[in-house]
Amino acid sequence: MDQEPGFIAAVEEAKQGAAEGGVPIGAALVSKDGKILGRGHNMRVQKGSAVLHAEMSALEDSGRLPASAYEGATMYTTLSPCDMCTGACILYKIKRVVIGENENFVGGEDLLLNKGKEVVVLDNQECKNLMSTFMKEKPELWFVIPVDFHYLIETNRNPL
Ligand SMILES: [Zn+2]
């Protein structure tokens, strides 16, 4: 599954985000017949955005689609999706969420499963390296809430 075009696109997006000095998380939305509908990366730093996480960027890039376009679709993301992006996947009835890694952060996977979504965690080393390097080099960008980020690193909490 690491070789699926949607996942490859998501990793490319994450690297692009890193190259831009942003949060290195990428995503791609793929239709049930394998077409990439949209792709994007986290734009929090680049646009000062509170909502353009990687998955939201991919949804934005997909444009406004008829409900049928999301049926059977897969959201590929390099990191476990936060509650907002989990909610967006549920709202648009995306069937499957393929996650690069959930070692650096665990998001709404339980909720996705409770909502009947298929969740696949690839445990991909490249994704892990992108995130762990970023968190070490730019903790102030990842841990935006003014609390002790060592606690957050230990507990995988609160990346916004
Ligand atoms: Zn998110």
Automatic annotation (TrEMBL):
Pathway: Pyrimidine metabolism; UMP biosynthesis via salvage pathway; uracil from cytosine: step 1/1. GO terms for molecular function: cytosine deaminase activity; diaminohydroxyphosphoribosylaminopyrimidine deaminase activity; metal ion binding. InterPro entries: CMP_dCMP_dom, Cytidine_deaminase-like. It catalyses: cytosine + H2O + H(+) = uracil + NH4(+). Residues 1-120 form the CMP/dCMP-type deaminase domain. It comes from the Eukaryota. Keywords: Cytoplasm, Hydrolase, Metal-binding, Nucleus, Zinc. Its cofactor is Zn(2+). Its EC number is 3.5.4.1. Belongs to the cytidine and deoxycytidylate deaminase family. Catalyzes the hydrolytic deamination of cytosine to uracil or 5-methylcytosine to thymine. Is involved in the pyrimidine salvage pathway, which allows the cell to utilize cytosine for pyrimidine nucleotide synthesis. This is Cytosine deaminase. It comes from Penicillium chermesinum.
